[in-house]
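Can't paste images in this forum, so I'm doing it all in text. The chain is below; anyone willing to post the predicted structure tokens underneath?
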Amino acid sequence: MKTLITGANKGIGFALAQNLGHRGYEVLVGARNETRGQEAVEKLKAEGINAEFVKVDLDDLNQLTSLSALTDIDLLINNAGISGNIHSDKGHLDMEKSAFDYSNSDLEETIKTNFLGTHAVITELLPHSLTENAKIINITVPVSQEYWMPLAYVTSKAAQNAMTFAFGHQFKKDKSQKQIFAVMPGAVATDLNGAKVGDSPFVKSPEETAQMISKFIFDNKNHNAQIINFDGTIYDNYEPGLRNKVIKDVAKNGLKRKFKK
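Text version of the structure:
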């Protein structure tokens, strides 16, 4: 069994590498910095885990084409990402930064890394690198919370979530055995947000988070085209009311509809 984890040199990614490595997985440590990636590999090997560094730079779409040479990947976890310039006059990690203070370049950089980079990783691996029953897991966040809205970050994750649904539906149409789903781990202590365990009862350690994500990976359920919250709540779309309306409309009027000008 083999897994590729992006951003696996620290935080949630490294904790997942440990968790899956101890389950018997060969771990490909995806990271953009080779020195830090190799350091993570050595730590994993010291724990008896079969690990290897793989360069994954989400900012460099040309570099990501090299991933197509990988083979026999059973589990792809897209964990890497950037917070999207949350600096403000209140500090370097201002999670309450005003939505009006994000520039076009902030949005462009974050979407390129978190969405386009992740998209490229998946599409490079899809043709030949993933096994028949491979699972793809995207680490994501809620994107419409009233009191937490770092605009660049949640915008990139909203695009990533839409991709999770779209790719999952395509797997269904193609009658593929592959699955893609996303997990919202909730508040986690990482250097991405500056949070620390103990800041509140809701902040989890990376190790606790990895254990929770693994539970969903190995629960023997088909989670294709789903987003799973840390408490197990499952979301299979963003517009439940609209979907119900469309289903009722189709049932009543059929697929053909007349549109009046």
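The chain has one domain: 2-253. Residues 2-253 form a domain with the Rossmann fold fold (CATH 3.40.50.720).
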